[in-house]
Amino acid sequence: MAIKKNVLYSALWRMCDKLRGGMDASQYKDYVLVLLAIKYVTDKAKISKEFRDLVKLPKGASFDDILALKGKDHIGEEMNKVIARFAEAMDLQNTFKDTDFNDAGKLGNAKDRVKRLTALVAIFEDEKLNLGTHKRSGDDILGDAYEYFMKQFATQSGKSKGQFYTPAEVSRLMAKLLDLRKATPSDTVYDPTCGSGSLLLKAADETPEGITMYGQEKDRTTANLAQLNMIVHNQLTALEGIKCENTLSKPLHLNETEQMLKKFDFIVANPPFSDKDWSIGVSTTDDPYHRFKLGIPPKKNGDYAFLLHILAALQDGYGQAAVILPHGVLFRGNAEALIRKNLIRKGYIKAIIGLPPNLFYGTGIPACIILLDKQTASTRRHIFMIDAAQGFIKDGNKNRLRAQDIHKIVDTFRNRTTCPKYSRNVPIEEISNAENDFNLNIPRYIDTIEDEDLQDIQAHLQGGIPADDIAHLASYWEAFPTLQQALLTRCKDADYYRLHNPVDEIIPTLAQHPAIQQYRQQVAATFQEWCKDVQSTLEKFAQGSNPKKCIHFLSEKLLKAFAQIDLLDAYSLYQGLMDYWEDTLQDDCYTIAMQGWQPEITMHSPKKKKEWDCDLLPKTIGIEHFFATQQAKIDTLKTSLEEITQQLEQLHAEQVGEEDIFSEVKGHNGKITKILLEKRLKNIAKEPEHQEEYTLLTQYQSLCKQESNLKSQCKKQTTALDEQLLRTYRTLTAKETQQLVIHHKWFKAVAQMVEAQVDQVYNQLADRLQTLAARYATPLPQLTQEVDTLTQKVTSHLNKMGFQW
Length: 805
Known about the structure:
- By secondary structure, the protein is an alpha/beta fold.
- 52% of the residues lie in helices and 9% in strands.
- The protein has 30 helices and 16 strands.
- It starts with a helix and ends in a 5-residue tail after the last helix.
C-alpha cells in the first residue's frame, strides 16, 4: 500500500504528542528522528538486497527489535541497547549518543516511561507506514516528511534553536541557481555551515545521478541531524563527509597534505548572520589557509569571513557558490567596503538576488543570495541583479517562497532577462563609478517604487476618467483592440472618457464581448494542446515511475504552453498546478507508482453500515461518468424534499405566538409527535370550531408523510447507487481507471484553474474601471448643487420650526 505524505506527517506529529510533558518541544526531534531513521533503514533493508548488503544490520539492531519491547518493564534501557547496536553498525555512535530513552527526567518514572515509549513506537506499527517501499520508485516522500518535521520544530523552537534549518524553498532556489544539471557523481558540493544538511540534499536533487557531498557544522546536535537527514534521504555515502567542528577556526575538509583547504566544484551555504564570535580561534593576519587576501572582516561581524572562506574553498578557474547573507553585506562600509570592492574588481560576484523579508527561522531581516563564479571572473563586466522581495506568500507568521517565485527567479537569472522593477544586468562600470563607489545595494540599480495612483483635479471638477489612466491600461487595449471603443467614449475634452454603460454593467459587458469570448477560445485551445502534449506521458506513468519527474514534465509544459498568451500570468498557472500537486496529484502519483492504476477500494464499516471510498478515483467522478441518470433522479428527489421541508418550516413559522395550533401535538421535548398529531386530528375531526386547526394539521400531516416518503426513496436509491458503483469499480480495468483519472479528475481540475485565470484577467480590468468611474462620478458642480439643495431643505425646515439659519 502506498504511503501518503499526510499520513506520515500525522504519524510523526502524534509521536511528538506522546513525548509532551517531560521535555522542551525542541527536544522532541532528538527522539523521534532517531526512531524515524531506524525505522527507515529497517524497512528499506527488507525490500532491497543492495541496501541490505550496504548497511549490514546485525542481529538486535532493527526497528523490529524495538517493537518487540512494547510493554516491557525495561523498555527504555533495552531501546538504548538496540539503538547503540544500530549506531555502531552505521558508524553513527556520536549521532545518537545524546538521546537517552531511559531518561526519567524527560520520559517520566518507570511506569510512565513504559506507557509512553510503548505508545510512541506503536505508532509506526501501522502497515500504512512502511517507509522502505517508496524507495522502489526513486522518490523522496520520506525526505519531504523529514523537512516538514524540521520545519515544525524550527517554527516552535524560537530564534536560538531555529537556526539549523534553511526553508526547503530557499534551499531549492539556491540549488537551481547553481545549475547542477550537468554535474556528475564525481563532482563535489560543500556546505561549510551545513546545519541539518538541507542545502546539500537539495543540491544533490538537482543533479542527474547524484554528487559527492561534504559538510561541516559546529553544533554537535545539529551535525547529528545532518547525518540523520542523510540516512532518511538514502544518502549513506554522504555520512563520511559530514564533520563536526567550527569551520572558520578549525576547517576539517583539507587537501591531501592537510596544508590547504580542500577545493570544491560547488558550494552552498547559509552562514549565521553577522556572527560576532567568528574570530575566536582564527588568525586573520597569519591565516594558514590564506582566506583573507582580499581583506580582513570586522572582528564583530563574520558575514565576509564566511564568504571569503567559501571563495577560498572554490575550485580555481571554475568553482561556483551560492551564499545567503544579510543585505548589509551589499552596502556596509569600512573593512567590508574594501573586501566588497576587491570582490567586484576580481569579478567573483556573478549575481545578487534580493529575497523577501521574514523567510528564515530565527530572524525576520531580509537577506540576499550572492552567487560567486570563478569560471568567468576574469572577463566579467556585469553583475546580474534581481529584486525578488515582493514574490512570496504569507504562511503563518513567516513568509514563504512559492513555486512560481522560485521558477521566475531562476528563469530570469538563466536567461539574463531585464524586467522593469525586477531585474537588470548592471555594468560593473556603473557600480564602480564615483556616485555608487562599489555599493551593491539593489535599489540603487533597480527602481521598485510603484507608480503613484494620481488624482486628477480637473476630472474632480468636471467629471470624466482621465486619458492618462486609460492609457495605463494599454496592455488590455492591445490584446482586445475593439474593447476600448465598446466600453468608453471620449468627452468633448479629448483628455477624458466616460463609460457607455452604468458601472454595474462593466463585468457583464466584458464577459459577453466578442474579443473576450475569442480570448477564452484561444486559452481553451492552448489548454487542449497541453492536454494532448502530456497525455501520452501520463498514460505511460505506471508502477515504478518517478512522481517528481512527472510533475516536473507537466509543469514545465504548462508554463511553456501559456507563456505567449497575452495578459495571462503563466507563472500563476504554474503555481496553480503545483498547488494541485501538493493537494491531490502528488498522492495520486505516489499511489500509482506503488501499486499501478488499479483503483484501491477502502472499505469502512462503522455501526455495521457498509461504507467505502476510493482516493484515486473519487465516487463523484464514477457517478458522473457511469450513473449520471440515476444521480439526476436522486437530485430531483432531494429538490422535492427540500421544498417539502421548507413548507413545513413555513407552517411552523406562521404559528409562532400565543395561538400556536401545534401546542397540542408537541411532546415533553417540544417536538411534534406522530401519535399526538393523529390523536388530535381524531378528536377535532367533527368539531366545526376547530375546522381551521384541523385543516392546518391535516396539511402538516400530509407534508410529513411526503417528507418521510421522499427521505426513504432518497436513502434507498442512494444506497442502491452506491452498491452499483462499488460493483462497477471492482470490474474496472487499469486502463479504464487511467482514462477516468487523467481526463475527468486531473485535466478537469487544471481546466477549472485555467478558466479562473481568464476570469481574473477581465475582472482586474473591470475593477480598475469601476474604481476610476467611482472616483470621478460626481464632479464639483454636481456636489455644489446637491449641497445647495440640501441647504435649502434644512433652512426651510428650520424656518417652519421658528429658527433662523
